[in-house]
Design a protein that fits this description.
20% helix, six-stranded antiparallel β-sheet, 31 strands, eight-stranded parallel beta barrel, alpha/beta, 20% strand
Length: 719
C-alpha cells in the first residue's frame, strides 16, 4: 500500500476526504506499525504499515484511499523491562488513545496480558502469544454532522439544578420509550424522556461515564459487568453499549450528538462524569490494552524507586502521569473534543484530587488547573470536582481553585446526621444551608461553588437511606465486604421493606425532608436520578456491577410514589420562583440599606435570634432561617435589581412537635405557609398573626412573607 509521510498533528486518525492521517505519541518506542483489520471478526490484521516518520516523539503516516469505517490498531516495539517501567510487547495490538469510536470491544483472554498468566515470575515474564483476535479496535470516523442552530443553554450556576442519571438505566425499563431505544443515547432523545425532565424542572443532566469502558474480567467471570462505567480505556469514544439503532460505531457518535442537540433545544445542559485519574489497564498485573503498551513510563505514575509498580491514588491500580506534558495534552485534547465536537456543556471529574498530585501531595495550583484556566474553550464550561481521592491528604473539599465547583461531601454528611436525629450538628447545618461560606468564601468563590447533594450514584438511594441501617451488597458477590459502612442512614424502625404504616409514613416524611432541605439550600442542588421516583436498590450501596433491575429505574409507580414525585416537582418549582434561593453572593448576616432586619437570621423556637448558648447545646435539633428577599444585592441581565419574597424555613430534626413562634413582619405583611413536609400534599394558605406554629416532629415548613394587598387582590379575583 502506498503511503505518505503524513503529519504529527493532530494525534489520532484524521480523515480528510482522500485518505487518513495516523499519528500516535510514544517517547520510548523503537518502532510502530499500523495494523488494518477487515472486520470486527478478523483474527488477524490484513495489513501492517510501518510508521517511518517520527516528529517530536509522534509517529505518523498518511494512507490514501482509506475511508471512514476502517478498523485499526497499533503494534508498538520497544523494551519489555517492567523493572525499568517499560512494557512494550509487539505481539499485542494496542488501541489508539485518540480513537473516536470503538469498532470492537475487549474480549477477555490470556493473550490480553503482556506477561504469561500463571508464570511464577508474574509480570516479569514475557508473553509472545498474539492478541489480535481479542484486542479492542478503533475505527476511522467521519466527523460531519448537521448541528443546525444548536447552542449551549449556558444556565447560570446559581439557577442550575443538576440531575445525575445513568445513560442506560434511566430508560431501560421505560415503557413509553420504543423498545429498541431503551438504555441508549437515542432513548434519552425521545419525547417521553424530554417531557419528563422538563416537567420535573431540572436544568442539566449529569451523565455517568459515557466514554468507552472495560467490563472487568473478574466481573465477567461472575456474570456481572462494570455498570457504572468508571473503568475507561478510550477517552474520545462514546460507549458502544449504548447504541440503540444497530448502526455500528459511527452511528453511536451520531446518536450521542443527536441526544445533545435535542436536550439543548429544550434548554437542558449536558454534563459528563469523566474519569481521567486512572484507566482500565489496572496495576502491574493488569491487561495491556493501550497506554501500557504504547509508553507505560510516560503515561502512568510509576514508583521512582521501583518502576515496576504504580502509584495508586485511585484504588484502581494506576494513576495517570499528570507531570508529563504529553499526558496533559492528551487529557486537554479529550476534553476539548467533547466540547467542540460533541457540544457538551461541562464535566464532573471523578477523584479530581488525583489530577492535582504533581509530586505526592495535592497541589491546587498544579499544571492541570493552570492549563484548564488558560484554555479559551475549557475555562468557559461547567467544571465540577469530586474533591477527594484515596491517597494521603486526598480529601480536599473547599480547596479547589476559583472557576471550579465541588461535590460538597460535608453538606451531604451534615444533612444526613441532622435528619437522622443526631445532636450537635445544628450549627454546621446552618452553615451548609447558607452555602458553606467557611469552605468557599475565603478564596473568592461564590455559594454556587458548592454542589449540594444528599445522595448520588455511589451509596444508598434516597429510598434506601430511610429504609436501611446497613448495606446489603450480597448481590455483588464479595460477601458484603465492598461499599462504605459509613452511611449515616436510619431505617425508621425496621430494616428494609415493611408493611408497618407508621414506619412507612415516617420514611415518606423523611424523604420529603431531605429533598426540601436540598432545594432550599444555597448552592447548586444535585438530585440523584431515580430518587424522585422512590427507587430502591434493596439496600445495595455499591451497585457498580449491577446492570439489571437492581439499578435500573422502575417507572410503574404506586400512589405513594406518585405523590412523592409531585412533591419533588413542587419544591423544584418553588426554588425556580424564589430569587433568595439562587443568590450569587454569600449572606453577610447583617442589615443592608438601612433595613431593620439582617439578610439572614437564624432563629430558635421562641422566634428570637439564636444565641451562642443555643448554638452550643447538643440537644438542639430545631432551627429557623429567615431569608430577606428584598435585600438581595444582585441584578438581572438587564441591570434591574432583583427583589424576591422573604422566606422562613423551619426544620425540626426531633421526634416531638415543637411550638415555633413565627417572627414578626411589618403591619402590611403576613406569613403564608407554602409547604409542610408533615403533610403528604397541601395547598399554600395564610397563617394568622401571633399564632405559634406547631412544627411537627421530623418535619420542614416553608413560609413566604406575603403582602396583604396580594390577599385582597386574590379575594377580588376570586369573587
Amino acid at each position: 500500500m502506498k503511503t505518505q509521510p503524513g503529519e504529527p498533528y493532530p494525534l489520532g486518525a484524521t480523515w480528510n476526504g482522500i485518505g487518513v492521517n495516523f499519528a500516535i505519541f510514544s517517547e520510548h518506542a523503537e518502532k510502530v506499525e499500523l495494523c488494518l483489520f477487515d472486520s470486527a471478526s478478523s483474527k488477524k490484521e490484513s495489513q501492517r504499515i510501518p510508521l517511518l516518520e517520527r516528529t517530536d516523539m509522534a509517529w505518523h503516516v498518511f494512507v490514501p484511499d482509506i475511508l471512514p469505517g476502517q478498523l485499526y490498531g497499533y503494534r508498538v516495539h520497544g523494551p519489555y523491562k517492567p523493572q525499568e517501567g517499560h512494557r512494550f510487547n509487539p505481539h499485542k495490538v494496542m488501541l489508539d488513545p485518540y480513537a473516536k469510536a470503538i469498532g470492537r470491544n475487549i474480549q477477555w483472554a490470556p493473550e490480553m496480558f503482556g506477561y504469561k498468566i500463571g508464570d511464577p515470575k508474574q509480570d516479569l515474564s514475557f508473553d509472545e502469544r498474539d492478541n489480535a483476535e481479542f484486542a479492542p479496535l478503533a475505527v476511522v470516523v467521519d466527523p460531519a454532522f448537521t448541528w443546525g442552530v444548536d447552542r449551549s443553554p449556558k444556565i447560570p450556576w446559581n439557577k442550575s439544578i443538576i440531575y445525575e442519571m445513568h445513560p442506560k438505566g434511566f430508560t431501560q425499563l421505560h415503557l413509553d420509550v420504543p423498545e429498541p431505544l431503551r438504555g441508549t443515547y437515542a432513548g434519552l432523545s425521545t419525547q417521553p424522556v424530554i417531557r419528563y425532565l422538563k416537567e420535573l424542572g431540572i436544568t442539566a443532566v449529569e451523565l455517568m461515564p459515557v466514554y468507552q469502558h472495560s467490563n472487568d474480567q473478574h466481573l465477567v467471570e461472575k456474570g456481572l459487568s462494570n455498570y457504572w462505567g468508571y473503568n475507561t480505556y478510550a477517552f474520545f469514544a462514546p460507549e458502544i453499549g449504548y447504541d440503540g439503532r444497530g448502526g455500528g460505531p459511527e452511528n453511536v457518535v451520531r446518536d450521542f450528538k443527536r441526544m445533545v442537540r435535542t436536550l439543548h433545544a429544550e434548554d437542558i445542559e449536558v454534563i459528563l462524569d469523566v474519569v481521567y485519574n486512572h484507566t482500565a489497564e489496572g496495576n502491574h498485573l493488569g491487561p495491556t490494552i493501550s497506554l501500557k503498551g504504547i509508553d507505560n513510563q510516560a503515561y502512568y505514575r510509576v514508583m521512582a524507586d521501583n518502576p515496576r509498580y504504580y502509584m495508586d491514588y485511585t484504588g484502581c491500580g494506576n494513576t495517570l502521569n499528570m507531570r508529563h506534558p504529553r499526558v496533559l495534552q492528551f487529557i486537554m485534547d479529550s476534553l476539548r473534543y467533547w466540547v467542540t465536537e460533541m457540544h457538551v456543556d461541562g464535566f464532573r471529574f471523578d477523584l479530581a484530587s488525583a489530577l492535582a498530585r504533581e509530586l505526592h501531595e495535592v497541589d491546587k495550583l498544579g499544571a492541570f488547573f493552570d492549563i484548564i484556566h488558560q484554555d479559551p474553550v475549557l475555562s468557559q464550561v461547567k467544571l465540577i470536582a469530586e474533591p477527594w481521592d484515596l491517597g494521603e491528604g486526598g480529601y480536599q473539599v473547599g480547596n479547589f481553585p476559583i472557576g471550579w465547583t465541588e461535590w460538597n461531601g460535608k453538606y451531604r454528611d451534615t444533612v444526613r446526621r441532622f435528619w437522622k436525629g443526631d445532636g450537635g450538628v445544628t450549627s454546621e447545618l446552618a452553615t451548609r444551608l447558607a452555602g458553606s461560606s467557611d469552605l468557599y468564601e475565603r478564596n473568592g468563590r461564590r455559594p454556587y461553588a458548592s454542589i449540594n447533594f444528599v445522595t448520588c450514584h455511589d451509596g444508598f438511594t434516597l429510598q434506601d437511606l430511610v429504609s436501611y441501617n446497613s448495606k446489603h451488597n450480597e448481590a455483588n458477590g464479595e460477601n458484603n465486604q465492598d461499599g462504605s459502612d459509613n452511611n449515616i442512614s436510619w431505617n425508621g424502625g425496621a430494616e428494609g421493606p415493611t408493611d408497618d404504616p407508621v414506619i412507612k409514613t415516617l420514611r415518606e416524611r423523611q424523604k420529603r425532608n431531605f429533598i426540601a432541605t436540598l432545594l432550599l439550600s444555597q448552592g447548586v442542588p444535585m438530585i440523584r436520578g431515580g430518587d424522585e421516583l422512590s427507587q430502591t436498590q434493596d439496600g445495595n450501596n455499591n451497585a457498580y456491577c449491577q446492570d439489571n433491575p437492581i439499578s435500573w429505574i422502575h417507572w410503574d409507580l404506586n400512589s405513594e410514589q406518585k405523590k412523592f414525585l409531585e412533591f419533588v416537582k413542587q419544591i423544584i418549582q418553588i426554588r425556580h420562583q424564589q430569587p433568595v434561593l439562587q443568590r450569587h453572593t454569600f449572606f453577610q448576616g447583617r442589615s443592608l440599606r438601612g433595613k431593620d432586619v439582617k439578610d439572614i437570621t437564624f432563629l430558635d423556637p421562641s422566634g428570637n435570634e439564636m444565641t451562642d448558648q443555643s448554638w452550643a447545646a447538643d440537644f438542639v435539633r430545631c432551627l429557623g432561617i429567615r431569608l430577606a428577599g428584598d435585600m438581595i444585592e444582585e441584578q438581572d441581565e438587564k441591570g434591574n435589581r432583583i427583589v424576591g419574597d422573604t422566606l422562613l424555613i423551619l426544620l425540626n430534626g426531633h421526634f416531638e412537635a415543637i411550638q415555633f413562634t413565627l417572627p414578626a413582619l411589618p403591619p402590611y405583611q403576613s406569613w403564608q405557609l407554602l409547604l409542610d413536609t408533615s403533610e403528604v400534599a397541601m395547598r399554600p394558605h395564610p397563617i394568622r398573626r401571633g399564632v405559634r406554629f406547631e412544627l411537627k416532629g421530623r418535619s420542614t415548613a416553608l413560609f413566604r412573607a406575603r403582602r396583604d394587598s396580594e390577599r385582597r387582590g386574590s379575594s377580588r379575583s376570586n369573587g
